[in-house]
């Protein structure tokens, strides 16, 4: 996505009115599985489209990292939603959500092995064959690394992107969480990632407990993540940035403050 989209926010039913009326909003994101392939769109989404706001469908159930082939029906749904929203691209996670017919209900981390790379690449290519637009892939936050990892996070991601031609949905909060939980420097991880492939960026909050940083999406974006946003934008052409909130929604004034903080860190104009 071009940088003219600036700062955006994830549309959620609970903040429908707030998002639909943000005066300077130029792009938003919606969980693809929350949108029906047919029938009426939620009122807030329709309002955004009527205003000319670009809306990106973000999938959470394709299980691109699963050992079994991606479910064709789920791919068709993502493709249909992209068509309904006239989206320029879709996004999904480098993760698995089911195995042996059991749905986990969570995004689960993959072992960073060459076998896992092959599985992800095969499923991404299956999805690309049915999707009407390009796909961007998001590495997830993880509380642990598998013991038999063969590749670093950066090398694992880069090989997948190189072999599929997919874009990168960079979650800067995940970069912070993963580096912090490993005891590493987030800036060192950021500098190893293929930033030239970034399609857009997620920004979110989290919380530390039991010695681990949890990527909750229910807390305000902390200052260290905002600092990473600023470093990203100093290192690379400023991408489109999107605030993710998925629960415990604060009052509108607090959401505006958080959006303004992201804009200030990135150098974009405030949208509120």
UniProtKB/TrEMBL annotation:
Sections of the chain in a coiled coil: none
Gene3D superfamilies in UniProt: Divalent-metal-dependent TIM barrel enzymes
Pfam family, one: MbnB_TglH_ChrH
NCBIfam families on file: PRK05409.1
Name of the protein in its database record: DUF692 domain-containing protein
Species annotation: Paractinoplanes tereljensis
């Amino acid at each position: 996505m071009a940088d003219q989209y600036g700062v955006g926010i994830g549309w959620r039913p609970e903040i429908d009115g707030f998002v639909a009326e943000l005066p300077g909003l130029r792009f938003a994101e919606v969980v693809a599985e929350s949108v029906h392939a047919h029938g009426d769109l939620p009122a807030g989404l329709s309002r955004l489209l009527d205003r000319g706001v670009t809306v990106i469908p973000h999938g959470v159930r394709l299980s691109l990292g699963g050992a079994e082939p991606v479910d064709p029906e789920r791919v068709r749904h993502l493709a249909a939603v992209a068509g309904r929203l006239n989206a320029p691209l879709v996004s999904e996670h480098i993760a698995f959500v089911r195995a042996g017919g059991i749905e986990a209900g969570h995004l689960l981390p993959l072992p960073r092995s060459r076998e896992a790379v092959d599985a992800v690449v095969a499923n991404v290519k299956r999805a690309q064959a049915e999707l009407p637009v390009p796909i961007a892939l998001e590495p997830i936050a993880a509380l642990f690394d598998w013991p038999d990892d063969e590749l670093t996070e950066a090398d694992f991601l880069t090989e997948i992107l190189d072999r599929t031609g997919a874009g990168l949905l960079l979650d800067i909060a995940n970069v912070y969480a993963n580096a912090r939980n490993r005891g590493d420097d987030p800036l060192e991880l950021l500098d190893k990632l293929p930033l030239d492939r970034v399609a857009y960026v997620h920004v979110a909050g989290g919380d530390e407990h039991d010695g681990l940083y949890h990527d909750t999406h229910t807390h305000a974006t902390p200052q260290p993540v905002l600092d990473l946003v600023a470093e990203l934008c100093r290192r690379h052409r400023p991408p489109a940035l999107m605030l993710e909130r998925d629960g415990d929604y604060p009052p509108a004034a607090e959401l505006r403050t958080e959006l303004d903080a992201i804009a200030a860190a990135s150098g974009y104009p405030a949208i509120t």
